[in-house]
Write a structure and sequence with these properties.
6 helices; elongated
């Protein structure tokens, strides 16, 4: 629930009441990345179960599209960034889930699994970098 996946995402946009440096920390650093990190670490263990794989993929895709659609309805810059964070976390979760599908059928040596897992981890670090900068810029604009 800490990784702000659908239906547990609602705390993330509400955290925008905080000052800008706190918001930047919440959205770019440890708060939202902890759940994604745990999913990434336990993918080789839980990829045995097809139910887990499809649950992670489905929740990731629903969160991706739900966050994107809600971001288009926002009027506040911080609200747009909050829902884009929800969307980006859904994308990372769906990458981990889709990579786990190939891991389930062919094992850890599959090129698709390695590519999906690497892309998810890269985007996790990438998101922390650009989202922190965006929140600082938003604080200056606001």
């Amino acid at each position: 629930t800490n990784s702000a996946q659908f239906p547990f995402y609602i705390w993330l946009p509400d955290a925008m009441e905080a000052p800008t440096p706190v918001s930047a920390y919440l959205h770019s650093a440890t708060m939202v990345k902890a759940g994604i990190y745990l999913i990434a670490r336990f993918t080789p263990v839980f990829a045995i179960s097809q139910g887990w794989i499809w649950t992670v993929t489905l929740f990731g895709l629903v969160t991706l599209f739900w966050g994107s659609l809600n971001a288009t309805k926002q009027q506040d810059l911080k609200g747009i960034l909050a829902f884009s964070t929800v969307s980006q976390l859904g994308m990372i979760m769906s990458m981990l889930g889709i990579g786990a599908v190939s891991y389930h059928y062919t094992g850890a040596q599959n090129q698709f699994y390695v590519a999906a897992y690497s892309a998810a981890i890269f985007h996790l670090i990438n998101h922390a970098t650009f989202k922190g900068a965006l929140f600082m810029i938003t604080g200056a604009v606001d």
